[in-house]
Structure formats: C-alpha cells, structure tokens
Task: structure prediction
Amino acid sequence: MLTIWGRQNSTNVKKVLWCADELGIDYEHINAGGPFGVVNTPEYRAMNPNGLVPCIRDEGFVLWESNAIVRYLCTKYGAGALLGQDPAQRARAEQWMDWATSSLAAPYRDLFLNAVRLPVEQRKQDVAEKGLQACISQFGIVDAALSKTPFLSGDVFGVGDIPLGCFAYSWFEMPIERPQFPHLQAWYQRLTQRPSYRKNVMIALT
Ligand SMILES: N[C@@H](CCC(=O)N[C@@H](CS)C(=O)NCC(=O)O)C(=O)O
Result:
C-alpha cells in the first residue's frame, strides 16, 4: 500500500494528499514533521535525507519532493489523469508547478510565518509586509493567466492547479489586505467545489 508521511497543515503535504484523493488512491497517512517529529529519526532520514515532508513509500519505492510525488501518483495510479495527453498542455501545467516552488514559495513563506504561524512575539512586521507585496505581484501573474483559461492546467483541472491551489487557500484565509483578483477568485471558487480540496486543503491554517 502507498504510505504518505507529512503533517496535514503543510502546503507541500496538502498537494500530495489532495492529489491522492482526486485519484481515489487507497493510502496510509502518517503525521510527521513539526510537532509530530519523526523526520529526524534514522529511519525517516534513510528515506528522506532532507528531513522534510512530504515523503512517500510505494511498494518499496521511496520518493520525496511534493511536485515529483504528484506527477508520480498521476502516472502510476491515474493512467495519466490530471497530467494531460497533449505535450503543450502538460508542459503548461508543469510550468505552473515549477513556478509555484521557484517564484511563490519563498515570499509566501515569509508572509505566512510572520502573519500566521509564528508566535506573535516572534513575528517580524517588515518581513511579512515584504512577503505580502511580493505575493501580490506573483498572484497578479496568476490572475492574468486565469483570465485566459479556467484552470492553470488549461480547460480542465489538472496537476498545474494543485500546488497553487494549496497556496491560494492560505492566501484567501490569511488576515491580510488583498487586492481584488477576479480571475484568481473565480478559479479558487471552482476549486472549493471539489470534495478532495475541501477535505485536504481547506483546513485550519495552524
Ligand atoms: N521542496 C520540498 C519542500 C519540503 C518542505 O519544505 N517541507 C516543509 C513543510 S511545507 C517541512 O518539511 N518542514 C519541516 C517540518 O515540517 O518539520 C517539497 O516540495 O516537497
């Protein structure tokens, strides 16, 4: 059976749990990371030397890096579902997966930690504000893309929507002042109609 390690309130773990449920995979979930520990045990480090979540083991095959896991699950369990058959469509979806990690994750982390997760006395207002401004700029790019197609993967929901869908939930839930991004908002509303999104992504932020 597939085993997924990682605490549920991690953005990167959410991607994997959401994807697994979209595909209807039967899996075992083990909480790890943050208050759950586990990630520093020799057994876990032997699987993932980074000591980070998520990590999966599937019939002896171990894999870490959330986006790679999402693609693996779609390929193995979805017969390509959510990936798209057309090379250009698939590349477009993967572009957004990579972009979410390389261009949005860092400013989002600065904002989220300093607006939500850290104890109040440890939060740095200037870091939160810098992160917020960078996130506004990045979500503006997403909003413009979503003015052209209903999903980041194209005409239908797919892997390109999964990483940003996880970031978007926190974006709309954080106690911050957001500009109006109508296309981003409409896409987010479409995601909220998906039961596996509501189950795995729309959970308490802390
Ligand atoms: N690029 C990695 C990043 C993994 C990562 O940074 N995971 C965070 C949670 S979002 C983590 O493990 N933090 C330490 C912990 O939770 O103990 C991925 O996409 O899987």
